[in-house]
Amino acid sequence: MEEMRIAFFNWRDIKNPRAGGAEVYNHELLRRLVKKGHKTTIFTSSFPGCEKQEFIDGIEHVRYAGKYMIYPKSYLCYKKHVEGRYDVIIEGINGVPFFTKLFAKEKVVPLVYQLTRENWYSGLPFPLAFAGYHAEDSMLGVYRKQPTIVISESGKKDLEKLGFRHVEVIYASHDVSPPENARKEKKKTLIYLGRLTKSKRVDHVLEAFGRIKDAQLWIVGSGPEEDNLKRLAEKLGIAERTKFFGRVSQEKKAELLSRAHLMLFPATKEGWGITVLEANACGTPVIGYNVSGLCDSISNGVNGYLIEDGDIDDMAGRVDELFEDDKALAVLSSSAAEYSKKFSWEKSAEELSGFLRNVIG
Predict the structure, then answer these.
(1) Which residues lie below 8 Å from residue 20, measured CB to CB, with a gap of 6+?
(2) Are the CB atoms for 218 and 243 separated by under 8 Å?
(3) Does residue 35 lie within any of the structural domains?
(4) Which candidate in 23, 120, 155, 319 could, as Cys together with 150 as Cys, close a disulfide (CB 3.0–4.6 Å)?
(5) Number of domains the chain is built from
């Protein structure tokens, strides 16, 4: 198979302390393309203590600017590192494009994780957030004619409404396996797994948990909202039943997911929701809001339940129903584990490889 030379522009990489599902998605696909014999380089922002250039799982990482200057400096990065050396550029777009389409001679493939809109104000200072919120559709318009990748059907529909015509869905997967002899906690246990940011609405998890008795809650992850959430737990009188684990290893994550009974995931919106599949793989169903991304990764009554966006009472009520019916909960747990097997990083990497070959060809 002829080698492809792939350049990838993205805000963060897998080692960035603020890396999320998008970075996991990128890394898992790129490292499999490397194993297939392709050259891949990802150009991202720097962070304290990082190497400016290194290889991770065979992927070359070039960190060429800080988190805010990465976009203005993309042209300079292209001229110095990319021009004439690669066959195709993948541009990860999570709100702000790099606009490589305007200056690159190579084929450009936008990878749109989600239309961020509601998430702008949780990730950027006011002037940038205000500008981004009102300009996102126009910025994406530059790429309407490009072959484009998304990670969910709802993401595809969002782009088609903006006039995109060649949109390919390449699903995310997971690499979490439950520990041998994993068992659920004796005490009914809820878990939240993910970044602690405003857009994830972990405060809704705490509010719902405050309505549930005789249970415990595990918050797994880190982020800027951690201190606020701990204060809210105190205010709601649930601090003694709530444990904050911070960021954990892959092994610890699998252990906690396997021991929990249900995961709550009330995000504003998601590109897909890799954590949904991670929980499912450990036999843990997920209750989330019926929003973009989660409406794709959660199938009602199969691997969890979707509830109306923002309905904390319904979230708590659904938990109570399942906690009071051990048989129904066990059936849903088994179904969730089976559902997670439908997705594979290998399959997605194969689809990405074929898609890029068609673009280059």
Answers:
(1) 12, 194, 195
(2) yes
(3) yes
(4) 155
(5) 2
Q: Report percent pLDDT > 70 for the chain.
A: 94
Q: What is the pTM of this model?
A: 0.88
* Domain presence at residue 143: yes
Structure tokens at 41: 């380089």
Q: Is residue 146 part of a domain?
A: yes
* Distance linking the first and last C-alpha atoms of the chain: 14
Domain identity same for 129 and 169: yes
Same domain, residue pair 14 and 89: yes
CA atoms of 206 and 232, how far apart (whole Å): 8
| pLDDT at res. 91 | 97
Tell which residue, 5, 24, 2, has the closest CA to residue 13: 24
pLDDT single digits (tens) 285-318: 999 999 999 999 999 999 999 999 999 999 999 9
Q: 324 and 354 share a domain? A: no
Burial track 157-181 (b if 16+ CB lie within 10 A, e otherwise): ebbeeeebeebbbbbbbbebebeee
Q: Could you count the other beta carbons within 10 Å of the beta carbon of residue 301?
A: 13
Question: Could you tell me the residue range of the domain that residue 199 belongs to?
Answer: 189-340
Contact 196, 202 (CB under 8 A): yes
Q: Is residue 237 part of a domain?
A: yes
| Burial group, residue 209, by CB count within 10 angstroms (0-12, 13-18, 19+) | buried
Q: Which two tokens stand for residue 32?
A: 């499999």
Q: Which two tokens stand for residue 207?
A: 């509010």
d(CA 137, CA 269): 17
Please give the Cα distance from 80 to 73 (Å, whole number).
11
